[in-house]
Amino acid sequence: MVAHQYKLYGMSVSTCTQKVVFALKAKNLNFEFININVLKREQKLPEHIARHPFGKIPVLEDETGFMIFESLAIVRYLDAEYPTIGTKLVPTDPKKAAVVDQWTYQSSFNFYPHIQGVIVETAIKPVAKLPTDEAKLAASRALLEPTLDIYERHFATRTFFANDEFSLADVAHLPYFNVINRTQPDLIKTRPNVAAWFKRSTEMDTWKAVMEWVQAAPKSH
Ligand SMILES: N[C@@H](CCC(=O)N[C@@H](CS)C(=O)NCC(=O)O)C(=O)O
């Protein structure tokens, strides 16, 4: 049996976990998946707090015991460790890398806080068997739509977020769009350029491998 190169602590339905799985698949790395059930608050147990001081998932651990949390930091790290394997997610050219970072970092402020509300109401609450709060969903959608409109204008002339090449910036967005494509598809369908980016990205073999992994991974619910 091939030894696992990495341990991934996460949950298959977690969008942040899926970003890390994307990098592991893109770099052809084998890993042991350790299911941390956030619905049972396993992320707050002392053994997990020892891995992640904020008690969140995902966390990646290598064979030496080196651990790292924050999904995008993990993806960036794996890309730097294996620069010649698979898709290069952060270019070596400083200007190109800066454009990738620009579109990645902005997602934490202009995109993630708003889409998270939509995901909680339409995907997480149903899994936790809690009712969707329609007022909160409407408020999150209203906050998200201006960012999606900016993305729609961006993709009128570009194929991917940065440098017309698939990158970390696309990985940062893709799992969230994948959820809203299922739960609130009008947010994508009404924006044809965003829809074209989503199609282009989800047609990649690595994304298909992530979705196959999600299907096969242990379920927490
Ligand atoms: N910015 C962090 C977000 C981590 C995060 O919020 N993870 C969620 C799951 S996607 C979580 O652990 N939720 C449970 C909690 O906050 O207690 C990352 O990208 O890793």
Summarize the structure.
Helices cover 57% and strands 8% of the residues. The chain has 9 helices and 4 strands; from the N terminus they run βαβαββααααααα. Strand 3 (59-62) and strand 4 form a beta hairpin.
Can you tell me about this structure?
This protein is of the alpha+beta class. It folds into two domains: 6-88 and 206-216, Glutaredoxin (3-Layer(aba) Sandwich), CATH 3.40.30; 94-204, Up-down Bundle (Glutathione S-transferase Yfyf (Class Pi), Chain A, domain 2). It has helices spanning 15-26, 46-49, 71-81, 94-127, 134-154, 168-183, 186-189, 192-202, 205-216; strands spanning 6-10, 31-35, 59-62, 67-69. Strands 2-1-3-4 form a four-stranded mixed beta sheet, covered by helices on one side. α1 (15-26) crosses α9 and α4 packs antiparallel against α5 (134-154). The radius of gyration is 17 Å and the shape is globular. The two termini are 30 Å apart. The model has no long low-confidence stretch (mean pLDDT 95). The site of glutathione has 12 residues, from α1 and α3.
Q: What is the rounded Rg? A: 17 Å
Low-pLDDT runs = none
Mind describing the biggest β-sheet? Answer: 4 strands, mixed
Q: What sequence of helices (H) and strands (E) makes up the elements?
A: EHEHEEHHHHHHH
CATH class of the largest domain: Mainly Alpha
- Return the average pLDDT rounded to an integer: 95
Tally of DSSP helical segments:
9
Strand residues, percent: 5-15%
User: What helical percentage do the residues reach?
Assistant: 55-70%
Bulk shape:
globular
- Label the structural class: alpha+beta
CATH arch. level architecture of the largest domain:
Up-down Bundle
**Which compounds are bound in this model?**
glutathione
What is the fold-level CATH name, i.e. the topology of the largest domain?
Glutathione S-transferase Yfyf (Class Pi), Chain A, domain 2
What's the total number of strands?
4
Strand order across the largest sheet: 2-1-3-4
| First-last Cα distance | 30 Å
The domain tally reads 2
